[in-house]
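Question (not urgent): is this output format expected?
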Amino acid sequence: MTENVAGQITGDDIISELIRNADAGLFKVRYTILVPCIFNVYLHPRDHELIQPIVELIEQEAVRALQEHLSGLNKPRTANPLAKRLGLSGEPRPEYKILEKQWKIQFHADQEERLRPAEIEIYSELGSARPKDFGAGAMTTLITKNTARDSATVAAGRDRADRPVFARIRYRDSGKDNTFVMTSEEIVIGRGGKAVWVDLKLEGPADVSREHCRIRRDPKTGTFFIKDLSQFGTTVNGAAIPNSVERIEGGDKVDRNREAPLPSPAKITLSDVLTLEFEAEPSQ
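Got this back:
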């Protein structure tokens, strides 16, 4: 059995982080919102070597995912009924766009030993040239860095980065036994995707949603809660928990923030197809 926090880095991890970086670097002018389009991606040397045979494919799919994300940002949204009554729905929405003719993505190996395996650091820019609408100093470089979720050894209730371990989740996925180590106050569990970031990424069947559920720890009390965000449901020790997502007019989804207490130990079953064994770490 292996014990880790995320597993080996994938191209999907890199693409998800690129989209997160792009969202973090949005810059509003007046009638336009600029999206970063130049990315320099830094990886641990081991991970950089791993992706070399397929780096062109990752770049192609990353460009496709970023373009789809840009199209989604510009997609017309259903006007709020209240806004219609107040006569506010006619205001033009800003256009999301990139300055360059095409997206530019380059991959580099971290030679300064800043990154651990599975960590990703991205430096992004809005463009190579400053547009006339920008003030002095506005063209800055945005840096985002994900936290490595992979650890070879975990002992005495702390991981390699000396962070406290709050809980462990044991599960069997793709024919392998795994243990996920929870070191954050809140984690997202699901299959993930190009535009869906998850902490515990599962390779389970499509019945498991891309963002299936969230587990949260109250830092004041140490109590755990679970929220179901899925299409086909989540059970805890055989009992279904309420779904937190509701569809509203126009097909949009709203998270009503419905949580259920999560005891320890507990068996969490996703869509009746995959079971996670949750156990909180004893208080240190």
